[in-house]
Amino acid sequence: MEKIRLDKWLWAARFYKTRSLAVQEIGKGRVLVNDQPAKPAREVAPGDLVAIRKEDPALRVRVVAVSGVRGPAPMARQLYEETPDSVAARERAAEMRRLAPEPALGIEAGRPTKRDRRLIDLMRGK
Asked: According to the lineage, what is the superkingdom (predicted)?
């Protein structure tokens, strides 16, 4: 087997839980093959570059092997290798998230009550 459908490869490589989810994401334009929009029936072969936008920095992987069978995760990991620039982008994004956490996480007591809002307005001089 030298070529396989894109949706089937994404499913076998464990990027998506089902083939129908892979088809939906491909249809939304979140999967590119060799930097071009693709259709689910597009065939991929070893050496193709696939960009998958599941998280903030897009995951860019090179197809190493093809398989039509969904196997265990260690076997699925052997179907692709992540490009060095993709690894660097993911590490940069993780570092940025670590350095600048979500502002809402600092609120421990939840939303201010009516009394709290009145005190805030009083401090602001309104």
From this structure: Bacteria
* Among the listed residues 33, 30, 10, the one whose alpha carbon sits nearest the alpha carbon of residue 20: 10
C-alpha–C-alpha distance, residues 37 and 52, integer Å: 11
Quickly state the pLDDT bin for 111 (edges 50, 70, 90).
confident
Which structural domains are found in the chain, ordered by start? Answer: 4-124 (3.10.290.10)
What's the whole-model pTM score?
A: 0.77
Residues whose CB is less than 8 angstroms from the CB of residue 112 and which lie 6 or more positions away in sequence, other chains included: 120
> Using CA of residue 29, residue 32, residue 37, residue 41, what is the dihedral sign?
negative
Neighbours of 51 (CB within 10 A): 18
